[in-house]
Write a structure and sequence with these properties.
The protein is an alpha+beta fold. The chain has four helices and nine strands. The strands form two sheets. Strands 3, 4, 6, 8 and 9 form a five-stranded antiparallel sheet that branches. A four-stranded antiparallel sheet has the order 1-2-7-5. A hairpin with a 7-residue loop joins strand 8 and strand 9. The chain is elongated, with a radius of gyration of 36 Å.
C-alpha cells in the first residue's frame, strides 16, 4: 500500500517557513537599529566633546587693552597705571601699560618693538627680554632729568587676567623743570620720545588659539605685525 501525502502538507510546510523568514527580517531590523543607535551615540559624544572643547577655550579667552596715562599735578600719584611707589608726588609722569580684561591669561607669542617704523627688537627671535636701552638713551637727551621704571617682556610669558601689566613709566621731578623755557607741557615732550616707538604684544590663549594683537605708543607700520 502506497502512502500519499495529505493534501494539506505543502501548506503546513509553507506556514512553518514564514515565521522563520519574519524572524530573520526582524533580526536584521534590530541589527540596523542597533547600528543606528551606536552611530547616533558616537555622533553625540563627538558633538559633546567639540562643545566642551569650545567652552573650555572660550572660558580662557584673553583680551589685552592698551592704556596710556599721564600725570601733571603736584598731588601724590594715585593712578594704577604708573609704577612709581605709593605717595610719589611733585612729578610729571607718563605711563604705558596693557590690561588683560579677558577670561584667561594671555600667552605672549611675541613682543615686538619698532623705532621710527623699523623693527629693533623681536622677543621670539632673540629669546630675550627688551631692556629699553635705546628708549632710555633718547629720554636722557631731554632738557630735564627723568625717572624710568620698566618691565621687559619675553615670548612665552603669561599675562594674568584681571591685571594691569606695566610696560614703562617715566617721571620728571617738577622742581627740575624750567617751565618758562619750554614751549609745551612736559608730558607731551616725554610722549614725543615714547611715540617714536611701537610696543607690540602678540598673544594667544593658553590653548595657542584665539590670538590677538595690541600695542602702545605709535601704531606699528606693518599691518598685522604679529604675523609678519
Amino acid at each position: 500500500m502506497t502512502d500519499h501525502p495529505e493534501d494539506g502538507a505543502p501548506e503546513e510546510a509553507e506556514e512553518q517557513r514564514r515565521p522563520r523568514g519574519s524572524s530573520v527580517r526582524l533580526q536584521n531590523l534590530a541589527n540596523l537599529l542597533a547600528i543606528a543607535v551606536g552611530v547616533a551615540a558616537i555622533g553625540l559624544a563627538v558633538w559633546q566633546g567639540y562643545e566642551n572643547r569650545r567652552f573650555y577655550r572660550l572660558s580662557v579667552l584673553p583680551h589685552l587693552e592698551q592704556h596710556e596715562a599721564d600725570w601733571g599735578t603736584p598731588q601724590p600719584i594715585l593712578s594704577e597705571y604708573f609704577l612709581f611707589p605709593d605717595g610719589t608726588d611733585s612729578v610729571y609722569a607718563v605711563g604705558y601699560s596693557v590690561a588683560n580684561t579677558g577670561l584667561g591669561p594671555a600667552a605672549l607669542r611675541d613682543f615686538l618693538v619698532y623705532r621710527d617704523g623699523e623693527v629693533v627688537f623681536a622677543a621670539a627671535a632673540s629669546g630675550e627680554r627688551y631692556t629699553f636701552s635705546d628708549v632710555k638713551a633718547d629720554l636722557n637727551r631731554l632738557p630735564f632729568p627723568t625717572l624710568k621704571l620698566n618691565f621687559g617682556y619675553a615670548a612665552g610669558q603669561l599675562l594674568a587676567e584681571d591685571e594691569i601689566h606695566h610696560l614703562i613709566s617715566v617721571g620728571v621731578p617738577m622742581e627740575a623743570v624750567d617751565e618758562a623755557a619750554l614751549d609745551r607741557p612736559v608730558t607731551e615732550i616725554v610722549k614725543d620720545v615714547l611715540e617714536t616707538y611701537s610696543f607690540v604684544f602678540c598673544y594667544c590663549s593658553v590653548y595657542q588659539s584665539d590670538c590677538g594683537t595690541t600695542y602702545v605708543g605709535a601704531e606699528p607700520p606693518v599691518e598685522r605685525a604679529c604675523r609678519s
